[in-house]
Amino acid sequence: MTREEPPDWALPSWDALPAEPRGDRATATGSTRTPAALGAYGIRILGVSEVTRTIRGAVRADPRLADLWVEGEIGRVTVSSAGHAYFALKDERNQLQCVWFRDDRLRSAFEAQAGLRVVAHGRIDLFEPQGALQLYVDSIQPAGLGDLTLRFEALKARLAAEGLFDAARKRPLPLRPATIAVVTSPTGAVWKDICHVLGRRWPLSRVVLVAAQVQGEGAPASLVAALRKIERYATDRAATGRPEEAPAVTILARGGGSLEDLWAFNDEAVVRAVVAHTLPLVCGVGHEADVTLADFAADVRAPTPSAAAEIVVPDRLEALAGVRALGRRLDASASSRVRSASREVAAERRALDRLGPGAQVVSARERVGLLLDRATRAINDRLVVERQASGRLGPRLDVILPGRLARDRSQLERFDRVDALVGRQVARARATLDSAAAALHVLGPQATLERGYAIVRRAADDRIVRDPAEAPPGTRLSVRVAHGDIPASVDPRG
Amino acid sequence: MMRMMVAAKTDPAIDALSFDDALAELQRTVAELEAGGQPLEGAIALYERGVALQARCEKLLGDAELRVQQLVARAGGAIETRDVRPEDAADEPASGG
């Protein structure tokens, strides 16, 4: 039983030494069996894949390596054609290979660049084809803010668990707020931008600035105080009998900046004040990509301060189009009423022609004539009003939206045509009435009634009864005498 | 005849309506007129009122100018608003509020 010493590099470390060496070395080295076969010298020799798999298993079993933040300096960055970035994170002595896959990389506002100190988040795993341990990065922040990022995530998780960001908490915004409160800095572009947008879209409102410090140490307290002040003002208005002066919605706004600049909007006290605010609140902080906890807490998150102003009010040009559409329905309805009234007048004339009570026609003519005069006048007045209105709105709206105005003008011209049509119908109806009245005067049947005669009509169809056969027993009648109608019926016992 | 007198076009009540109130009443008036059923003079009165309401809405939309104010807390704790130009808004002086 002689044993050669194995070379240093072959010292076993993966498994216990076997009790019995096996003679057939060729078989052992050529084998890929698992677990490893025992080779010459009683040593278990492993395949490369077995080793990498074992390392991988050990790495994956360690929870510290599954979710970690690593701070370091980025070395040379290579981006593959598939869009994945490869780089090393270094400190003074060591380095760690990193992979940042395309999808995660494109989601990030931050780009990996050589020389930057960063905090990367990800997991350690083994890239088996190269036997390389790597950090698989899912996000990267500039170093120094890493602390803020961690605090942001921790506070976000805690407040979300309390339900402060729940969709069910969100309140709808008022349709057309008469008063809008704005919490922001009075200096800087944000406040002016908001005024500009509100003035352009919905100048019927009143905007009330509540000045607040939006950056720096005192900012959180200042923002909370501003929100409380709005609530007190609203309560005060309601208490003094002017609830309509209370703000209907609050805008919380700040311009863009670094994560540190926007930090006040991640302050817990501010987030809680936003949640507790008694008015619906729109948050417009920073640029599109900036997200703060106040955004999550608000009823509506606007991507920018100007967008917040756009969201809280309607557009007056749309409102104008809506009002004009109602006006067109009004006109259409009135025109059809005048047309049917004209038809009724003509029908009444035919009935009275057969009957001929002159006084009735005179009074009916008077009544209908007055009404038709009034309708014509109303329609004429309307043309004047419309023209004035379009003259007044014209210059201002021309600047804003010439196409829309041109459309409005063509609608006005259509009104002209409708009005002309109605006017002609009114004139025709009046002419018909005039001739009917003239004819009746000649015939003068009222005089006949005055002498005590009566006109008998069937109630069902107003036909004048000239023959008893036209009124069988039970027929309901209307008997016209000089000063009115008497309802009657034919004796059913006939 | 009475109704004709009541529905005069320069109705001071209409001239005092807010946009929301005028619009709501215009919508009601249009719906009522479209539903029909009223005598001709009632319909004309509704029409005239609708026209006046539409004019009121358009005037408000055309003439309106944004009112810009700033909320200020007085030393006693009272909160007031004062008119400002957007560019003249200022940090609120420290106060007892």
Question: Care to describe what's here?
Answer:
Chain A is α/β, with parallel strands linked by helices and 494 residues long. Chain A has helices spanning 25-30, 48-60, 63-66, 102-107, 146-161, 189-201, 219-239, 268-276, 293-297, 305-312, 316-355, 358-400, 402-443, 445-450, and strands at residues 68-74, 78-79, 85-90, 95-100, 117-127, 132-142, 179-184, 206-211, 249-254, 281-285, 300-302, 455-458, 476-481, 484-489. In chain A, strand 10 (281-285), helix 9 (293-297) and strand 11 form a beta-alpha-beta unit. In chain A, helix 11 packs parallel to helix 13 (402-443). The longest helix of chain A is centred in the last third of the chain and has 43 residues, at 358-400. Chain A is elongated, with a radius of gyration of 45 Å. Chain B has one domain: Helix Hairpins, CATH 1.10.287. A two-stranded antiparallel ribbon of chain B has the order 1-2. The longest helix of chain B has 24 residues, at 40-63. Chains A and B meet through helix 6, strand 8, helix 7, helix 11 and helix 12 of A and helix 3, helix 4 and strand 1 of B. Strand 8 (206-211) of chain A pairs parallel with strand 1 of chain B.
Number of domains of chain B: 1
Number of strands of chain B: 2
* Percent range for β-strand residues of chain B: 5-15%
Helicity of chain B, in percent?
Answer: 40-55%
Output the strand order for the largest sheet of chain B. 1-2
Detail the poorly predicted runs of chain A. 6-33, 390-406, 438-444
What's the count of strands of chain A? 14
Give the H and E element order of chain A. Answer: HHHEEEEHEEHEHEHEHEHEHHHHHEEE
- CATH fold call of chain B: Helix Hairpins
> Sheet with the most strands of chain B?
2 strands, antiparallel
Mean pLDDT of chain B: 81
Structural class of chain B: alpha+beta
**Ends distance of chain B:** 60 Å
Number of helices in the DSSP assignment of chain B: 4
Name the chain pair whose interface involves the most residues. A-B, 54 and 50 residues
Level of helix content of chain A?
A: 40-55%
